Amino acid sequence: xxxxxxxxxxxxxxxPTIRYYEQIxxxxxxxxxxxxxxxxxxDALARLLFIRHARDLGFPLDAIRDLLALQDDxxxxxxxxxxxxxxxxxxxxxxxxxxxxxxCELEKMVAQCAHGSVGECxxxxxxxxxxxxxxxxxxxxxxxxTDHDHALAPRS
Amino acid sequence: xxxxxxxxxxxxxxxPTIRYYEQIxxxxxxxxxxxxxxxxxxDALARLLFIRHARDLGFPLDAIRDLLALQDDxxxxxxxxxxxxxxxxxxxxxxxxxxxxxxCELEKMVAQCAHGSVGECxxxxxxxxxxxxxxxxxxxxxxxxTDHDHALAPRS
DNA sequence: TCTAATGTCTCTAGTAGCTATAGGTTCAAG
DNA sequence: CTTGAACCTATAGCTACTAGAGACATTAGA
Lengths: 156, 156
Fold this sequence. Notes:
The structure is a homodimer. By secondary structure, chain A is mainly alpha-helical.
């Protein structure tokens, strides 16, 4: 039996995150010690490692929830799991495509900066005038699938 | 003078987003009509387009705040703007590197799926057993710079 | 055995960048 | 003059956690 701290160490997951996973139903509620502290068996570690690995691969928690349900019932056909993984792969591919375009524009911007004053700065200028940048045709289509990225994401 | 709706249309930004930008101080508070509705002049449109373009390039709002301050004072040296753009470029590059690694792993996973039952599914198996995947050495170093991505992000 | 340090408990609020909703007011067209 | 759209404020929600407060449990050392 592991304490929550040991479990977290073993899986490389922070303690509050484990409690969070329990709260949203990804982990089964743990048994408790006499003093009301959580105690975990080996299968909880396996489940947590599964979640952690899936998170490392970028799967959203909802997808992980589905994958765990599949894992719990090994007689179901594999197609659902395959579909989830493929969707994730496509999301990653879309994201890479987007980011590559961004990189291209950013590189141009930075390269043209003459390091003078802001008044003649190419960076500021390009940002202010959309026409100055070589932007591929900008479709506002809504093919959003798994795009809750923020910091590096153009709005869908 | 533009209403908030017209401004949004002109800039390709939703109305609540404009109010949000005002709230967090990215846009100056707009003048009001007799009936207390916001009215915008041309310079507000320019500012909003600037923000929108920077967002499209993935700049976080804090960085945009700094860029706007620089734009407001054209006599400052350009170095600060250049630094912000370069930081963004590096963040994008890091992200692409990460995602490319993820893509590789996901592709392998999907390719190995034999479309049988979950019990023998390679996808589920690989997720459950970290050793089965060809993961490059996993350093827990903290080089987080702009990583508030969620859906597709491995935790830093 | 006592004590101090660490670990754990619950609960709440905060992060980014919006989006959605509710309940009310104003504006412009017919 | 009426209707419907656009607008107002304020609040809550989204992802996936993280941080903090204040109280209780456990454990290692003296």
